[in-house]
Amino acid sequence: MALTIFPKVQLNGVGAVAARLIRFLIGNDALGGGTWSLLYACDAGTRTDAPSDPHDVSTLNPANAWCDADGSSLATGDWFVVRSGLSATGHYFELFVQVGVFSGSVTDALYFKMITLADNGGTGAWSYTGTSGTLGTIFATPPAGCVPINAGYKKWKIGNTLNSFSFWVDDATFIGLSDVGGPGATATLMYVGELTNTRSADTRPFVLYAYGDSLDGTYCDASSGSIMYNRLSPVDNVTVLESGYYTALYNTTGGYMHASTQDKVFLGESSILPIGVEFTTPGHLHFAGFFKHMWGVNQAALGPAATLANRAYLCRGTSTTMPGLAFPWDSTTEYP
After folding, report:
1. What is the domain count for the chain?
2. Nearest CA to 131 among 94, 93, 92, 101?
3. Is the pLDDT score of 222 beyond 60?
4. Contacts for 65 with CB less than 8 Å, ≥ 6 apart
5. Does residue 336 lie in a domain region?
6. Which of 49, 113, 281, 300 has its CA 20 to 30 A from that of 183?
């Protein structure tokens, strides 16, 4: 399917975001959406239902809180599982998403777990063992290929106030951007799904962003240990890698191309350049591929929030001296 963009919609709180997200992924939103399939939805630990139509949330049991389109009935601990559409390499994955419930973690966040070997059902798919509680309870017997492993999760910080949210979805990729407090303040990112330009033998090039507390506008700073992506290793389809660093084009005499001193606005134009991810775990070292629908941009000339090419691209960063990220935009919606 073609990329679908959910541009700069105002949502208030994690429940509202979760309710729109589930509908957007499965193509059940008023603005359209993806081709993903809803498998299960759990309502506050009291009931777990499968929809009669995997592309229509309203076909869950009517008593299930996920049926409320505004998310007002959702509570901490509610979760859903969706299956992606078919990737370019001919595979699926499943994605578990839960409203914050974890001990010591914020509750204004969504928590993600990717089930890489799920395909379209089969032995790698998830079969839930409980209805509520922490991931340690729900995934008491996790299927092979879970990223992160066992009871691990990755967080996307949402906030519990009125914020601006944008989503991007295609068959096997989801990107979420939250402008917590508005475009001039902190932003947070979530990237789940496939990469492009991968090795032919790497048939499940699916990654999960691991630093959803912030946008990470300084993707060139490879010295930061927190700038990471996770994936299942293509070497053995068993080892979970937690060492995925951004890669970027580099000028050997000057530094990263999108550092503020290297790439100026020239003839009134800025450039966007591909960025990828490399995994550095010994025995599994590899460049995995480039991100879909996400590029690097020199934020110094643009400010922390801007558009390019008559609103064909949204550019978002956290600094005016370090690089930012660029995403496709709808050529219509103002930003910021």
Report:
1. 1
2. 101
3. no
4. 43, 44, 73, 74, 75, 78
5. no
6. 113
